[in-house]
Structures are given as C-alpha cells and as structure tokens.
Amino acid sequence: MASSLLLVGFIITFPCLVSVSLSETLLLPLTHSLSHAHPQFNSTHHLLRAASARSAARFRLRHRHQRHLPRQASLPLSPGSDYTLSLTLHSQAVSLYMDTGSDLVWVPCSPFTCILCDGKPKPAPVALNSSSSTSDVTCKSSACRAVHSPLSSSSDLCAMARCPLEDIEISDCAAYQCPQFYYAYGDGSLVGRLKKGIVTIPTSSPPLVLRNFTFGCAHTALGEPLGVAGFGRGPLSLPAQLAESSPQLGAQFSYCLVSHSFDADRVRRPSPLILGRYDVTEKSSEGKGGSDFAYTPMLDSPNSPHFYSVGLEGISVGRRFIPAPENLRRIDGRGDGGVVVDSGTTFTMLPSGLFGAVAAEFDRQLGRVNSRRARAVEDNTGLSPCYYVDGAGARVPDVEFRFAGGSGVAMPRGNYFYEFVDVDGGNKGRRVGCLMMMDGGDATEMGGGPGATLGNYQQQGFEVVYDLEGRRVGFARRQCASMWDSLRQG
User: Fold this and answer.
1) What is the pTM of this model?
2) What keywords are annotated for this sequence in UniProt (predicted)?
3) Which residues are catalytic?
C-alpha cells in the first residue's frame, strides 16, 4: 500500500544512536490496531476515509458539547489510527486504547451490550460480579465528583444516588454508590459505574500491582466495544493513579509511535510507552550528544482541564512562515483555544483560516511542478489537497510547527505528505500524494473549545514526552522501532 521509500528516507536522513539508563521506569508495548485491522479496511482509500471522517467528527463534537459536557472524552479512532496496551484486571487480561485526550480508565464489564458494534473487535468483557476484591465507589468520594464533573457537589451526587434527605443533611452518604456516569465520544458513548479494584501491569518485571485502583465499569456502550486507558491530566487517569503509589512513575510519561504510513507490515513491532523518568543520551551521526527535546509549556483550560494543551505560534511551509491565529497561541478567559496534543486523533485538525493558508502555500509551492490535482482521490479520502506525483517526482516543501517558547518541530515528509498508489477510478495505478492535515472549521462557528488538535499521524517518529511536574510537552526525533530494542536492552 505505502512506499517503503518514506521509511528508508527517514532512516538515512536522521540516523542516531540512543543509549538509555532505565531508572525507576516502566516500559510497556503499544500495539497498533492496523496490525490486526478488520477486512473492511482493506484499501488505502478506506483507511483514509475512515480516519479523516472520525478525526473531524471527534474534533467537532468536542466543540458542540463544550459548554454542556465539560467532561468530554476523546475517541480512539478506527483501524489505522489507534494504539492499545494490555493490563490485567482481577486476573483477566484486557486490551485498552491508550488515550491522552481522556482521563478515565474504563473496561467493558459482563454482561456487556455494545450497540452498533458490528465489524468491530469483540473482546471478552470483564467479570466482576463474583470478585470480592472489587468495591463500589461512593457518592461522597472525590473520584465520584471527578467522573461526573469538577463542579458537582457532594450533596448533588448524594441526591442522584437516592440518598435520603435526612442522611444528606447530616453528610452521612458514604454507604451510597456513586451514580452512573455518561461519556460521549466522536461516534459512540457509554454508561458506566465507578469501581475500585486491583490492576496489574503484567509486562513489567516484576509485575506492577495497583491496589484500590479506580476504574469505570460499563455494561452498555454505543459504537465502542473496547475500553480506554485514559492518560489525561485528570485525577482518574492512569498516570495520576500510578503517581499515588509510585510517584517516580507518575511524574512523566512518553511514547514513540512507529511510523506506519497505513502499512500493516510497518507496525508489527511495538511502539514503546515509557512511564517515569529515564536518562537518555542522544548521539547523532556527527557524534554530538545531549538532549534534543523541543519543549513547549502546557496551557490550562477550566473547560477542559484534562487536555494537554499547548500554544502554537505558526507553521512554516518551505521558507514561508504562516502565523497562527490568536486562539491557537493561548487559552482565553473563557477557557477556549490552544492546541490539544492527542494520541487518539489521527490527523491534525486546524482552524479554517490557518489550514487554508497552509494548503494554499503548499499548493503554490508543490503545484508549480505537479499541477494536476487528484480531485477524485480528495473526494474518496476526505483529504485535500492531493496531487498526482508520478513522473518527474514531487518537490514537497518542508513543514515545521513552531510552538510557544520558540520550540520548532520539523516534520519528516511522511508525517504530512502521504504517497500511495491510486487503486480506484480511471487513474488506477498512478501515484498520489496528499496533505495529511485537515480543516477543522471556523472557530467562530464551533462554539468554543480547543482551537486545534495535533494528531498521532504527525507524532510518528517522535518521542513525545509529557512532563507532568515540569508542566511541559516535548518532542524529539527517534527511530521508534530501534528505540524499543534499546530500551529493552537497558
């Protein structure tokens, strides 16, 4: 499906040797869903169409419900765009989406009904009914307030839990179960209850056991049969709960997503997920050492406190720098704006003005040599602009994201311009290239919320570090497949 030249170019252009010292660190493998994609996603067009449609759906849903549902979670996307990790809950292995855009760990619990889940994976739900080591979370707990809303008071939740008035008046609701919560997703949702239990990370050595771990137990879901391991900034996320028992593991995490270009053969190897801090010495082919992370500060939003939001100063296309609008540089007094760094979204979503300027400059520079637009491919994939790039070859301009604080992140070509063979229509067999960013719409019409999203496709080939103590996000180029081997040896 995808050209191996993209990956070869990456290896030749950015060689490096990474030596690591693992200290109080946990290394976990992330599995890409494309390696076991459903047969319905059997062509590049299908994968691109599904990923672009769901990227847009989630981004727009975040804005539509921003004022009404401040606890919006983000949606792990269709095959070709999501990453899973394995945990053990009460001796039962579960595979969960790793998602930095939500802050709750939830699992499907038996009996489990998933509506509109045909064609999606159907894992065995977790059986908790006979488990004596599982307990309910009460309506008086801080976890109950967190899953419903930071604004929910204890008395409101006690009333929702049908606690008698006389007990509410004397603050004696500790015996009443936390009410069910609702999470909405880009094309699905779930209803669940909070539980406390034992979670084990079996891939660590020795296995790490987390007792009194708070998680969501869902018996009903719409369009979402797999659970989610939320890595967001909220108190119920996996890093936050990990920090309670192992502070050295919860202070920081990072991942390095193996470049795939929608080719299943490229994601057979795991992408490393690193919990905790570790010492890394990066040596380039010229022998230079030192840390090469480009850091940018995290921004805080009262509307979406669980997002990892950063400021974007602008995007360079070739030699032209295109400034970002004000709502991407910072979060305003209403809590709107900023760019969400999200492992669950496939493609970067930009506001219409910035996307239009980037696409126009891209078209101006690339279109001079490859003037023929692949309009049919644009219609079939939801991506634009696309060009026929066979023949003389495409002179694709360089692209760099410049974040707040002066951090410049130069994107490898395969992260923003995807080349593949057109398999449909009258141009079957011709080589096509598409810009891998999307128009997120006009911010004034979206109703508030994040200004943009940095998707996981643009994060490929980078180690993305979330420094929770330093309140910053960093990016460093890596050969992620080789990095996994180096970390395992360390």
Assistant:
1) 0.84
2) Aspartyl protease, Glycoprotein, Hydrolase, Protease, Signal
3) 99, 342
